[in-house]
Amino acid sequence: MVGVKNNRRARYTKKMIQETVLDLLEDKPINNITVTEVCRQADVNRTTFYRYYDDIYQCVDDVEMDFLESSEPPKKIQPMIALEGLLTAFYNDRKLSNLVFVEGKTRLLEKLQDAMDQNGKEFIDPYQSAYLMAGMQSIMKLWVKNGMRETPHELTQIIVKIIFADDIQKMRDFAILNNPE
Questions:
Q1: List of long-range contacts for 44-51, beta carbons under 8 Å, 24+ apart
Q2: Tens of pLDDT along 126-149?
Q3: CA 86 – CA 110 distance, rounded (Å)
Q4: What is the 3-state secondary structure (H, E, C) of 96-158?
Q5: I need a surface site. Which of 1, 25, 43, 174 has the fewest CB within 10 A?
Q6: What pLDDT is attached to residue 1?
Q7: Is 100's pLDDT higher than 80?
Q8: Contact at 8 Å (CB) between 106 and 60?
């Protein structure tokens, strides 16, 4: 007999449970979702659910880890290419994007912050990292809330423009030229 954890049917069942939890999270907070409700909608019994997860939180953690593993950029990649890859992954998984950015019901952003800190620690101090991550999160939240109208490439360009303060520098120069003392 093939191992229970890795066979095709087991992977399918886990995926159905995860998708059901994500569907339910669109309408209610995680602490209001019951295992019974997930089992009913996923058409699995409680024993099957508990074979894979201890609770709903562990299921969400598993979804987050799968996402992080699937979207992790290579170690030697330019930060903006990595950002565009991450935005593309969110663009392609709108349920997860809504969960993370609009509802804020996961710890995925904290995990991304930790990854950013680890990969850029020689270039950015912790205060800069916190500032940049908070700004990028706010931009991504607005992007998701507005229906992801811009492509991941366009949003990456917007973020880069803001990070390097292109418009702010132009406004500063304009203010200095028009307000000589």
A1: 44/13, 44/16, 44/17, 48/13, 49/17, 51/4
A2: 788 788 888 888 898 899 889 899
A3: 15
A4: HHHHHHHHCCCCHHHHHHHHHHHHHCCCCCHHHHHHHHHHHHHHHHHHHHCCCCCCHHHHHHH
A5: 1
A6: 42
A7: no
A8: yes
- Provide mean pLDDT across the span 10-16: 93
Counting Cα atoms < 13 Å in the Cβ hemisphere of 24 gives: 24
Distance separating alpha carbons of residues 32 and 135, to the nearest angstrom: 30
Rounded to two decimals, the pTM is: 0.68
Question: CA-CA distances (angstroms) from residue 148 to 79, 85, 138?
Answer: 21, 15, 13
Q: For position 4, what pLDDT does the model report?
A: 55
Within a 10 A sphere around the Cβ of 70, how many other Cβ atoms? 9
Rounded Cα distance between 157 and 142, Å, is: 15
Give the helix, strand, coil percentages of the chain, each rounded to 5.
Answer: 75, 0, 25
Q: For the chain, give the longest Cα–Cα distance.
A: 84
Q: Radius of gyration (Cα) for the chain, nearest Å?
A: 20
Share of the chain above pLDDT 90, in %: 27
